[in-house]
Structure formats: C-alpha cells, structure tokens
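User: For this week's homework, look closely at the record that follows, marking any run of repeated tokens, and judge whether sequence predicts the tokens.
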Amino acid sequence: MPNPAAKSTPQTAFPASNKSIMARTLQAALCTPAGAMARTGKTVGTDMNFRHSTVFAAGLAVIALLGAAALHAVNSPVRSTEVKKSIEAPAVPPPAIGQGRDALPTAVQEMHDAILAAARSGSLEELLIPIQWNELPPDFGERSVKETLADWKKNSPAGSGREWLALLANLLEAPYAMVHRGRDIENAKIFIWPAFAELPLDKLTPALEVELLRLVPPDEFARMKAAGGYDGYGLVIGADGTWHAFKKVKQPHKEVK
C-alpha cells in the first residue's frame, strides 16, 4: 500500500550535476551589489551603479541557465548518440550501376576475366586458378570451396558441374553494382554481380528487367519482386581484385500473403 506521506521527486529538465553548476553561478550573481540589494532590499551605490549591477547580475543568471542547458544537451544520451552517429556514419552514396569490364579498376578486371575464362573453359578445375589468387579462399556459403566444387560435380546431372560455370558466366556478363562498404568511403569499393542484389526490383528500368530475366525465369522474377528483393546467387570482388564471395544473396524479405 503506498505511503501517503511519501512525496515523489519531481523530474526536471537538467541532471543534478548541471543543476549544481547553475546554482553556484546564480549564487555568484547574488553576491554582486545588485544581488545584495535583491536579498536585503537596500540600495547600493548610485542609481547608475545599481542599474549597471542589475544588468550584470541578470547577465550572469542568463549565462548560468544557458550553460546548464548546453551541458544537459551535450550529456544527454540521445543527443550524444545522434552527434556520434553523424560524425561516424558519413553519407553513403547510392550504388553505381555498370556493365562489361571497361569501367572496372584494373585489379577487378583481372579477377573478372580470370573467373570468366575458367567458367567458359567448361572445367571446374580451371576455377581453382582465380580462387588461388586470393590470400584466403572466397566465401562459397556454408561449405568450403573444396566441398562446394565436389558437391557441384556430385549433384550435376552430367557429373561435370558445368551448370554452375554457366551461372558464373551469366552473372559476370550481367550489370554490376559498385557500392561502398566500411568507414573509408574512397577505399572501400566493392563490385557486386548482379546489380539486382543492390536494387529494388519494383523500380528497375525496362532494360534492367530484361537483364534480370536473362538470369531467372519470369515466375522467379515475380516471386523475388513480391518477396522484397533478388535472392539468387551473387558474386563479389573487392576494389583490390580480391574475390570475396560467390553465394546466395540474403534479402530482408517481405511477408508474402
């Protein structure tokens, strides 16, 4: 049962530390001649001095209030978080869309060409050449590169895995998106095939819709569009030529009713 004698502490706009700063500043203002008169009701000095002192004391009081408010704004978790985010998270430019190899950086061109040459060779073993250019193998999903290549052969109707090489070739001939990842905007460019992994499917131009329909059948295109985005396979190469990934794209799908 609540105690009727207990009084709740009123909440104020300023934390205790800031209120103490404001109180000390106001106390200093009251120690001025005008402040003394305000406390005792006695006239101090001439009328002119009184007016000057009054203005001075009032100025100190205003400064105290503004200072406490400023400290509260700086110390506020919400405000400091917003300021921190504005400093640490520079605006990220939208993806730049391209196609072909001519506009790619030299290192990206070389890796692009090596993967495409391996795909067109018809031999999964040739794919090991661009894979071994990396310091670390690219991310092929849940299984290692070696296990993935073995699965491709094992699950292929002809036992060759060439349908995967065809998919790689089709992806690298599709439009790509150049996006920025990381804090260093200039040196964090990555190139993603196909570009649809970074684009809203309901806003594609007619030309881009045709390019997507070269990768997936119409019913898959419709399903992806309803679900919220492209979720087929994607390939990622860094600006330094590192082959980062070849795996399914994950999208924040809508709930399809």
About this structure: The chain is about 50% helix and 10% strand. Residues 96-248 form one domain. The first helix runs from residue 16 to 30. The mean pLDDT is 76.
